[in-house]
Write a structure and sequence with these properties.
The complex is a heterodimer. By secondary structure, chain A is mainly α. Chain A is built from 4 helices and no strands. Classes of the chains: A mainly alpha, B mainly alpha.
Chain lengths: 128, 147
């Protein structure tokens, strides 16, 4: 015959760790977050670099009176023609660089961009 | 387009240009520390310089037709300066957009984040200097002749 007395759950006893016993700690290695931004950053900076270099080259060619015929066909205003032509060169150039270059090339982006800015500025100051 | 409207647009363009030059310096200064979040100020500065550049591009054909011949005759040096001004304006707009794209990429976590943020810094610093040069040249040219 079963008794109707409710059974009490056993008390949870907190057993203190004896002093000096270290808890087992699983060593956690520092995980490196694999970057997914590198190819895109290379593409953006590459496009800007290609734009700046082609713009500088077209400015120098214009100063010498050697405007390429396809560039002249883009617009009757040389400034607009140069902007469009440089964009046509820069955008696919950047995509290509982002696809071709290894991820570690992202470290060189600040220097590459600075070189592009310096070359374009020099071309504008000298040839424009 | 009436001369009054063109003159008003030229004034707005000049003021926007100076504002944009100052605004572009803001993300450049903030990005000296690569971990800082600059997306909002970068976007605002880029929109501002694009508006100034767009207005300049709208005015440019009119400028070539009406002001440039008189400027070449009266002050050839100022005319040369204007040529440089418009090129530096293009440089500022292109670098600002490149900087905004790089700043947006640097917003995400990753090992390469500091390098991308530094590239955004270079782009915004270049854009700020180019916009400042363009705005200063614009003032000098406007002193000689305007719409």
């Amino acid at each position: 015959m079963r008794s109707a007395v409710a059974r009490r759950p056993p008390a949870i006893r907190h057993v203190a760790q004896p002093a000096g016993v270290a808890r087992a700690v699983r060593p956690v290695a520092a995980t490196r977050v694999r970057s997914r931004i590198a190819p895109r950053a290379i593409g953006v900076a590459g496009a800007a670099f290609a734009f700046l270099i082609s713009y500088a080259a077209l400015t120098a060619l214009h100063a010498g009176g050697w405007d390429p015929r396809p560039v002249r066909a883009l617009s009757s205003i040389p400034l607009f023609a140069r902007v469009v032509a440089s964009s046509i060169v820069g955008l696919p150039g950047g995509l290509l660089l982002g696809w071709l270059l290894p991820h570690r090339a992202v470290r060189a982006l600040p220097a590459v961009l600075a070189i592009g800015v310096a070359v374009a500025s020099l071309a504008i100051l000298v040839f424009a | 387009v009436s001369p009054f409207v063109v003159r008003a647009f030229a004034h707005v363009h000049g003021h926007l240009g100076w504002l944009a030059a100052l605004a572009l310096a803001h993300p450049a200064l903030m990005l000296r520390r690569p971990r800082r979040r600059v997306l909002v100020v970068a976007a605002a500065a880029t929109i501002l310089v694009s508006a100034a550049g767009g207005l300049g591009a709208l005015l440019y054909p009119c400028y070539r037709a009406t002001v440039k011949p008189a400027l070449i005759a009266a002050a050839p040096l100022a005319s040369d300066l204007f040529e440089r001004k418009e090129h530096f304006g293009v440089l500022a707009v292109v670098l600002a957009w490149a900087g905004l794209a790089l700043a947006a990429l640097a917003h995400r976590r990753g090992d390469d984040q500091p390098h991308v943020a530094r590239a955004a810094f270079v782009a915004y610093a270049g854009a700020a200097v180019a916009a400042l040069g363009s705005a200063a040249a614009g003032i000098i040219v406007a002193v000689h002749r305007s719409f």
